[in-house]
Amino acid sequence: MKSKKGFAIGLDMDGVIIDNTDTKIRFAKRMGFTLKPEQTHAELIEKALTPEVLSELRTHLYFNPVTALQAKLVPGSLDGLHQLKKSGQRFYLISKRKYPIIARELLKKHKLWGKYFDEKNAFFVRETEEKDYHIGRLGIGLYLDDQPSTLDKLVNAKHKILFDRFNCFVKSKHRRVGSWEEFIKMVKEHGVVNF
Ligand SMILES: [Mg+2]
């Protein structure tokens, strides 16, 4: 895996590492809505739920420790992080979370905190513009995020990759990967610098 000094990979958390799909489907069902996995995407879910239900869901997902800590890992993310670390690739987590205590607890629960992430390479921000600030500051050459609208706003990342595991955005202008396996393969084949 090519990794020139100064270049790093930036990773979003929700929808890339942390998987809230089942929690969203279960909560929606209790409220009388049936969601398919692809409808749970952060940019599509508002089409499927009422604003009131969505607001309550977000509270449960990000502020209620009981519900929030039920989130799983995105398939392949653990192995992907292992491969990045093993290769010596510098990587960072930059997540938009208003309540980072729960986010850290979630990473601890899944044994990622301390092994792959810590205070030095994990940053929790309130606005997308702050993501971009860290991307510039940390010398991140490639950023992986599951939201096209977020990637659109990042001007400091040279390479922006859309993590699109449910094939929601086939017409996106951003380069897409459907899985962690595909992402790692892409990084290995082309390196962060040269693709
Ligand atoms: Mg996300």
UniProtKB/TrEMBL annotation:
SUPFAM superfamilies: HAD-like. The active site is at 12 (nucleophile), 14 (proton donor). Gene3D superfamilies: HAD superfamily/HAD-like. Belongs to the 5'(3')-deoxyribonucleotidase family. It comes from the Bacteria. InterPro entries: 5'(3')-deoxyribonucleotidase (IPR010708), HAD-like_sf (IPR036412), HAD_sf (IPR023214). This is Uncharacterized protein. GO terms for molecular function: 5'-nucleotidase activity. Pfam families: NT5C. It comes from Candidatus Harrisonbacteria bacterium RIFCSPLOWO2_02_FULL_41_13b. One of its GO terms (biological process) is deoxyribonucleotide catabolic process.
